[in-house]
Amino acid sequence: AINVKNNQNLVDQLIEWDQKHFLHPTSSVRAHQQNGPEHIFMEGNGVRVKDIYGNEYIDGLSALWNVNLGYGRTDLGEAAKKQMETLPFSSSFNNYSNEQAIKLAHKISKLAPGDLNVSFFTSGGSESNESVFKIIRHYWKLKGQEKRTKIISLGRAYHGVTMGASSATGMDTFRTFSTAHSPDFIQAMPYLTDCEKGKKNDLNFEHSIRGIIEREGEDKIAAVILEPIQGAGGVNVPPGGYLQAVRDLCNEYGIFMIADEVICGFGRTGKMFGVENWNVVPDFMTVAKGITSGYIPLGAVIMKDSFRDELASLTDNILFHGFTYSGHPTSCAVALKTLEVLENENIISHVKDMEAVVLERFETLKNRHFNVTNDRCVGLLGAFDVLKDPSSNTRFAPEQNAAMVVARGCNKRGLIVRPVMYKGANSVVFAPPLVANKSDINEAMNIFSEALKEFEKKVK
Ligand code: PLP
């Protein structure tokens, strides 16, 4: 970190320029204009980042659930440097190809479950979801089923912010941010396992995926998309049997199942992919984030080779969809190195071990702190809720901003975590880099405990 005492002018300059010239994503414009940036980060090492004042934080959200291998990895930097010096960029349009993209597509086919052997590359999660929707609709059009356009997603889901991805997003804060949504996106109520299996006397049946398919007509539905575990919506883990019920339902109606693995993919849940926790193989997976550990942008749509074969047999037209950076050699080189590290350093089995540590410490938090409840953690994707009275399921008033107060208390003490306050719920998310060890987790949990003590005094 810079020595602030000798660089006060730089700090002042950065804050001023930030306020004047930088419109921040998913941030309050007013708070930014009033208070300036929340943090200016300068460097990171392992699970920790340092801000411009030299304060150190454990990154309990892996930045945006993506810096999975932690900060300061020279091997990832070197992979990028080497590729940039050799062939920084090359187009993949018109069947031009490059070594790194080819090797990465091959590697992904080895890692992905079932026949998910073909990758279409993008620059991130939203682009991946946007792409899967368009490619699937293109397919149905080629099959003479133009009317199969509708995409069913789940309430509380997060699929990104481009037009299609935000229309699929179930969190209405994101979905209704702008106007003129893409048509033909419908949200189902999450986790109605029995309804999806066909139990129709449930009051919520009409809001289930099955209910929507029956109402709209199966010949209008292109695909169902869901996160194996919902991330931004509050780390919502589906009940056992849910993913399988959705798989069976999609098979029954001949509808594609898309797993949005943007957070869950590449080890986050203690398996290579989130769906593997339930042994379900979707027709498509969308990935991003952890594929490069966030060191460089990259995403992909992973599909079955039978689907690609069918596209080839249906048309000799060009696939008129692609981004300049689809198959970016430098991004692909970093991804290859990331996947190599994941395997060579046995990161995924480490994540499984750390899951047990987090769950044990969550249990202690729950015992010590009256308001903590509903703790959950799969791999290193964890969260707990804060309720006014867990025994009667009574929530805090929205204006108390309970999860935000806890998260700020953590932040003050050197731990970055994410509050989720969607529709009156108060969840605090903990998803540190996959390389976090027992002592990092214990340190984070001690901070949680201190922040919760302060919170308890505030809400008394
Ligand atoms: N899908 C999921 C499950 C995500 O969590 C995110 C981002 O958080 C996205 C899609 C969008 O990805 P991106 O921000 O890279 O466009």
UniProtKB/TrEMBL annotation:
Keywords: Aminotransferase, Pyridoxal phosphate, Transferase. SUPFAM superfamilies: PLP-dependent transferases. It comes from the Bacteria. GO terms for molecular function: pyridoxal phosphate binding; transaminase activity. The keyword Lipid biosynthesis does not apply. It holds the Pfam family Aminotran_3. CDD domains: OAT_like. Belongs to the class-III pyridoxal-phosphate-dependent aminotransferase family. This is Putrescine aminotransferase.
